[in-house]
Amino acid sequence: MKPEVGTLLEALPYIREFHGKTVVIKYGGAAMTEPELREDFARDVVLLKYVGLNPIIVHGGGPDITAYMRRLNMPVEFVGGLRVSDADTVEIAKMVLVGKVNKDIVSRINRHGQPAVGLSGDDGQLFRVSTMTGPGGEDIGFVGKIERVDVGVINHIAEDYIPVIASVGADRIGRSHNINADEAAGAIARAMGAYKVMFLTDVAGWLRDVDDPSSVISEASADDVETALLTMEGGMRPKLQACIEAIHGGVTYAHIIDGRLPHSLLLELFTDAGIGTKVRPAS
Ligand SMILES: Nc1ncnc2c1ncn2[C@@H]1O[C@H](COP(=O)(O)OP(=O)(O)O)[C@@H](O)[C@H]1O
Ligand SMILES: CC(=O)N[C@@H](CCC(=O)OP(=O)(O)O)C(=O)O
């Protein structure tokens, strides 16, 4: 048998399993720096829609926000993987995420043959946020925690389009907040009752030792993750926190995969081997 046919046949049971299912995909800033990878990503998402999945994209753009802040000589600070955000920082985050990154993703998906629609928390009042603190209770400014997602808005759009969601939104009195895109993806997956949530990032997965790329933890239970979160810092923290949020809300699996790898989405979804870290409910 030709190897290409083998690959398609290997994918068939997965296509059947995932048909009609909602998959929330967090597309991370660190994995979106290469134009070629951005193109591959858009093509993969279109393929998912064509084979009958319901992909919902939630994106970040942290490195882009940092680059613009530096141009404006603004101080850049993170606490527990969350950007400290005063009102000026929120304004930059909003301009970069909604105006630049979101439109780039939307137009690439459009070009590959499925229409996409960009949304932020403000559109159709998609989500409402409250102000959150850092992991140690620190004041980190206008950083939002999603309190409520209007899934009706996403379902309505997803009937005909691929929703592409930027992680900014407002609180009850209309103040804009910067939301970590991992937190947004976890909350949206939970609210949507998604089958899976997948985080594309710039490492091979959750690493046992952050300095050893070969130390990927291929599978972990929600309990393992909760234990690790007690001491974890850096960008992996909000990702694992979001995995827990999603799994506790009924999402079957959460995956952290290497967005630097071309077609990583397809490799995880449609091959027997899979890639990265899979978080499952506590057994
Ligand atoms: N145990 C860990 N395993 C993997 N990555 C980790 C770990 N601890 C901290 N990190 C950091 O988390 C980063 C990924 O998070 P982040 O930079 O926020 O990515 P993204 O932009 O994709 O959301 C990695 O590049 C790595 O530096
Ligand atoms: C509060 C907070 O941390 N907001 C993030 C939003 C963007 C984001 O999460 O981007 P990545 O997924 O590329 O890291 C930030 O300002 O960087």
From TrEMBL:
Site (Transition state stabilizer): K26, K239
Pathway assigned to this chain's UniProt record: Amino-acid biosynthesis; L-arginine biosynthesis; N(2)-acetyl-L-ornithine from L-glutamate: step 2/4
Binding site residues for substrate: G61, G62, R83, N178
Keywords, alphabetical: Amino-acid biosynthesis, Arginine biosynthesis, ATP-binding, Cytoplasm, Kinase, Nucleotide-binding, Transferase
Name of protein: Acetylglutamate kinase
Coiled coil: none
Principal location class: cytoplasm
Entry GO CC: cytoplasm
Keyword Methyltransferase set for record: no
Domain of life: Bacteria
Role: Catalyzes the ATP-dependent phosphorylation of N-acetyl-L-glutamate.
Enzyme class, broadest EC rank: transferase
SUPFAM superfamilies the UniProt entry points to: Carbamate kinase-like
Family: Belongs to the acetylglutamate kinase family. ArgB subfamily.
MF GO annotations: acetylglutamate kinase activity; ATP binding
EC number: 2.7.2.8
HAMAP family: ArgB
Reaction(s) this enzyme catalyzes, per UniProt: N-acetyl-L-glutamate + ATP = N-acetyl-L-glutamyl 5-phosphate + ADP
Domain Aspartate/glutamate/uridylate kinase: 21-258
